[in-house]
Design brief:
The protein contains 8 helices and 5 strands. By secondary structure, it is α/β, with parallel strands linked by helices. InterPro entries: P-loop_NTPase, Thymidylate_kin-like_dom.
Length: 232
């Protein structure tokens, strides 16, 4: 199963799985791969997910597409109105809508909200700088597509990559051509699907790992604050 997973930004999600159920993770039955595709706005997640799904289906591999937020539902339509500037909501209201739609939106709560969920077999991070993203068509049409926020989102992804020792992260430069990005992703997916057949599906952020990661990040932030105070 291949899935892309958003943090605070709007992200597309695709899931690719074999005909065996994910519920088979407690035995040695073959299963599909669960892969997360991440990235800032306008990095090409929707395009690459579509291309990958088409490729897998052409190879007779059953594929399922998912999207977060899912704008096809009633709640998703409300989120879409908010993201595109059609309505204004306070932070608590939009957080609840995102949570009901399937994902948490508050950046600082992402890890905690994911504890115990199925762990992906791999994360594909489509890396794109804010400057490059800003040059792409449609940038700025949605509420969260601002320079400062997109820089913070990219930094958060990079920090999660450092903290997450459980799931393999694969960084793909989204500044390449569509065809080059597609080729890189295909290699990662092919390898991951082969490996996933023979291992159990894990869980995200086991409690001990989550606490250790939080403490590591807290200590690092304290050190940065101390260095900043010394400079001032």
């Amino acid at each position: 199963m291949l899935v892309t997973n958003p943090l605070i930004n709007n992200a597309a999600a695709a899931a690719v799985s074999s005909t065996t159920s994910l519920h088979h993770n407690n035995n040695n039955a073959s299963r599909g791969a669960f892969i997360v595709m991440e990235g800032v706005d306008r990095c090409g997640k929707t395009t690459q997910c579509g291309l990958l799904l088409d490729q897998l289906r052409s190879d007779n591999i059953p594929a399922v597409a998912m999207r977060f937020p899912d704008r096809t539902t009633a709640i998703g339509a409300m989120i879409n109105q908010y993201l595109t500037g059609g309505t204004d909501l306070d932070d608590r209201a939009i957080h609840l809508l995102f949570t009901c739609n399937g994902r948490a939106i508050v950046l600082g709560m992402v890890q905690q909200s994911d504890v115990g969920l199925p762990a992906p077999d791999a994360v594909i991070f489509l890396d794109l700088s804010q400057e490059e993203a800003q040059q792409r068509g449609g940038y700025g049409e949605e509420r969260y597509e601002t320079k400062d926020l997109q820089i913070r989102v990219r930094q958060r992804f990079q920090k999660l990559q450092q903290l997450d020792t459980q799931v393999p992260w694969h960084v793909v430069s989204a500044a390449q051509s569509i065809e080059e990005v597609q080729a890189d992703i295909s290699k990662i997916v092919e390898k991951t699907m082969a490996q996933a057949k023979h291992k159990k599906l894990g869980k995200l952020w086991q409690e001990g790992d989550y606490v250790a990661a939080c403490m590591q990040e807290k200590n690092k932030n304290n050190e940065e604050d101390e260095d900043s105070e010394k400079e001032n």
